[in-house]
Amino acid sequence: NAGVMQNPRHLVRRRGQEARLRCSPMKGHSHVYWYRQLPEEGLKFMVYLQKENIIDESGMPKERFSAEFPKEGPSILRIQQVVRGDSAAYFCASSPNDHEQYFGPGTRLTVT
Amino acid sequence: KNEVEQSPQNLTAQEGEFITINCSYSVGISALHWLQQHPGGGIVSLFMLSSGKKKHGRLIATINIQEKHSSLHITASHPRDSAVYICAVTSDKLIFGTGTRLQVFP
What we know:
Chain A is built from no helices and eleven strands. By secondary structure, chain A is an all-beta fold.
């Protein structure tokens, strides 16, 4: 059973471009969480999704950020019109039961 | 004040030393997690506990629900234990402490 997969591992975007981060949960896990770790800061919750539903997006910035977890395929975190302040590590975690979470390796986004 | 506080923020130790990292929280929780983040950045879940004590190899985690406090202990520390250790609590969502940076020197 492969662990949580995230790709790409590193992503470089120019200001104003779009960034798409993908997270494939562990097999059998229907809960997905996205977290952001800004440079020199701790992890912060962004959004919690179950298949086709956003359960809690209280940690998502109000503009430019969106997330989905379709019935088929990975969960996607999408950042439109990226700015330098979006540079961070974005971690995804999955869970079978909204309790124990298994983390992916993260995607490091650099905005130039 | 953060809802999850860790101490110390930084910790250095000589190989073989016994290490304790503390975590206090101020919210109601259903579980507490200890995570390890290596310099490469990946996060590994070490423990999830809601009461008592858990042991895995040289790592021991305890939690006191009444006092809202947890400790992570590392026995016979080794340089490969050097990492950031993060305490996180499950409230309505996962809330993270700021981490304890541990360096173990040979």
